[in-house]
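Table 4 source record.
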Amino acid sequence: MADQVTANARRGSSFLQIAIALQTLTIFLQAVSAGLLLTSSYGETLHSIGARVMYGASMLYVLAAVLAWKPGGSSPRPVLHASGFLALASVQVALGIAHVPSVHLPLGVLMFGLSVLALSRR
């Protein structure tokens, strides 16, 4: 029984690490596509698609955190972090749609930093 719990915790932790890495990568790619947004005709399309992918990666992070916590028995703290990150991603998307770059860009930098920090803590 204890071996099963340990195996579940390890799997949940691995999935959580992959989800955070994916989220970090998608945020980085959003910065790249933001640069393309300023310099090419297809940048807006890439940034728009990337926003959806980044938001999906944030939702995956929440799912992975819940799966690592509940059946794996780990701390609920990653669930709070992931939920907070999803809230930031929601604000980020709304600011992007509203074309508020004075807040949208710094928030993107903050989100990337927080995601790298979460990744380094795993």
